[in-house]
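Consider the tokenized backbone below.
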């Protein structure tokens, strides 16, 4: 296997890993849609009351904690959606090429070229230049993959946090609803 084929294989592997990372993010978004639907369905059946109408401080405390957990959950969900949509799934462009560069291997440069210039550059490319351009692209997609996987790790951690917060939120609401009479409401 020559150097160019080796780099092309590596490039394809990195591109596949980028697709896989995007697919993971999409799956988490799909699961999130079910989580948000369940949360909305559960919350729509709950009657919200003023926490300070409880006769005992336990009810007030539980109500305030439930509110804080609920607000925290909404914030975590919004941060999570931001990460998924704008840090992972949104297509990333090259950061290490200038507008003066005219690589025949990078789509943004090809799109800016006139067709005749592109064909000429493609016909005139030698093995050394081809090797360097593929190497540059491998570097770029590797950087993109690195950023995406780091953001996916953050997103997965937020996902687990949001699941924990949702369970706590539902548990607190259940406790409040079942003990409202006991708490002197």
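A designed sequence for it:
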């Amino acid at each position: 296997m020559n150097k160019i084929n080796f780099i092309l294989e590596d490039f394809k592997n990195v591109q596949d890993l980028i697709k896989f990372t995007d697919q993971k993010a999409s799956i988490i978004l799909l699961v999130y849609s079910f989580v948000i639907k369940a949360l909305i369905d559960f919350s729509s059946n709950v009657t919200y009351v003023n926490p300070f109408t409880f006769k005992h401080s336990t009810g007030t405390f539980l109500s305030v904690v439930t509110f804080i957990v609920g607000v925290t959950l909404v914030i975590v969900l919004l941060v999570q959606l931001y990460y998924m949509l704008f840090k992972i799934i949104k297509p990333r462009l090259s950061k290490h090429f200038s507008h003066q560069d005219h690589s025949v291997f990078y789509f943004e440069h090809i799109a800016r070229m006139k067709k005749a210039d592109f064909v000429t550059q493609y016909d005139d490319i030698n093995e050394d230049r081809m090797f360097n351009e593929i190497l540059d692209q491998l570097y770029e997609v590797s950087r993109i993959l690195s950023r995406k996987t780091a953001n996916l790790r953050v997103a997965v951690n937020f996902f687990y946090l949001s699941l924990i917060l949702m369970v706590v939120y539902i548990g607190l609401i259940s406790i409040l609803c079942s003990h409202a009479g006991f708490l002197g409401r």
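The radius of gyration is 26 Å.
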